[in-house]
Amino acid sequence: xxxxxxxxxxxxxxxxxxxxxxxxxxxxxxxxxxxxxxxxxxxxxxxxxxxxxxxxxxxxxxxxxxxxxxxxxxxxxxxxxxxxxxxxxxxxxxxxx
Length: 97
Hints:
Number of helices: 3
Number of strands: 5
Helix content: 25-40%
Distance between the termini: 35 Å
Strand content: 15-25%
Order of helices and strands: EHEHEEEH
Radius of gyration: 13 Å
CATH architecture: 3-Layer(aba) Sandwich
CATH topology: Rossmann fold
Shape: globular
Largest sheet: 3 strands, parallel
CATH class: Alpha Beta
Number of domains: 1
């Protein structure tokens, strides 16, 4: 079976249960989840690590809700990750959004 690396991006505190569900589903399907649990957003060196993980991922999942998250200048790290990734985009809406 082919294993895919899946980068999971979101704000953390408000979406922890949803992140946990996505990560659990990725693991149950036999794939490899990657996300902020493995590194922290903080400085340019950490941003290089994040970009490398996004580049090495086969899929990019972003969870969006009502918080902005940790800021890097005028944008959040979640937005910065989203702006950086170059994989094809498929939108799915869950809940009352």
